[in-house]
Specification:
Layout: H1 2-20, H2 28-53, H3 56-61, H4 63-78, E1 81-87, H5 95-116, E2 120-128, E3 131-138, H6 145-151, H7 153-164, E4 168-174, E5 177-184
Parallel strand pairs: 1-2
Antiparallel strand pairs: 2-3, 3-5, 4-5
Helix pairs in contact: 1-2, 4-5, 5-7, 6-7
Length: about 190
């Protein structure tokens, strides 16, 4: 996350420098359009970065709308077709559990975007009696999870986040299909979500 913030700060500083060094003359309008586009990319990046720190939609509306937002954003930016499926009656989870589930989905979607060469991804939330299963399935190129866990912090981070809430975490992958699965253990006193 810190690297992303530094990247957007550098982009902003480049745009500011370009404005300060703007020559007087006929070329001025074209250069202003370039600077304007750079600033807009900077602003968009900063907004994404801020939302990624703690998405307000998660606090305001809950897990499902936050996942819908995440999938919509990815589809709009990348063209990857996204689907969210829910099975069973929603559970009310505590904020820490929701944040972990959201972060695991976010990291898995990031990996799909950057490594899988996928055309579509399906996110499933399956609710059982006091349990929740999150599953992300993509149709990308696949990878060897055993090898990639040693070299990628994202996969290790998902595993570590899952363990923080006592959830089981599993990745199954082959060419044409990768499944990331998080199984939340039974929730004490589960209540249906509003």
């Amino acid at each position: 996350m810190l690297f992303g913030g530094v990247l957007w700060l550098r982009l902003y500083l480049r745009a500011k420098t370009a404005l300060e060094n703007l020559p007087k003359g006929e070329d001025q309008h074209a250069r202003l359009e370039v600077v304007d586009a750079a600033l807009q990319r900077c602003i968009d990046g900063i907004r994404r970065f801020c939302r990624a720190l703690r998405p307000s939609v998660l606090d305001d509306l809950g897990l499902v709308p936050a996942l819908e937002w995440l999938l919509s954003d990815q589809s709009d930016r990348t063209g990857i077709r996204t689907t969210l499926e829910e099975h069973g009656d929603r559970l009310r989870l505590d904020p820490e559990q929701e944040l972990v589930i959201f972060r695991v989905a976010q990291e898995a979607l990031h990996n799909i975007e950057h490594h899988a060469h996928a055309a579509q991804v399906v996110v499933r939330l399956a609710y059982g009696p006091g349990t929740l299963c999150l599953e992300l399935v993509d149709d990308g190129c696949g990878f060897d999870p055993a090898q990639d866990r040693q070299g990628r912090l994202g996969l290790a981070g998902m595993q570590e986040r899952a363990s923080l809430i006592g959830a089981a975490f599993e990745i199954l992958s082959r060419p044409g299909e990768t499944r990331v699965r998080l199984d939340l253990p039974p929730v004490s006193n589960p209540a249906a979500a509003d």
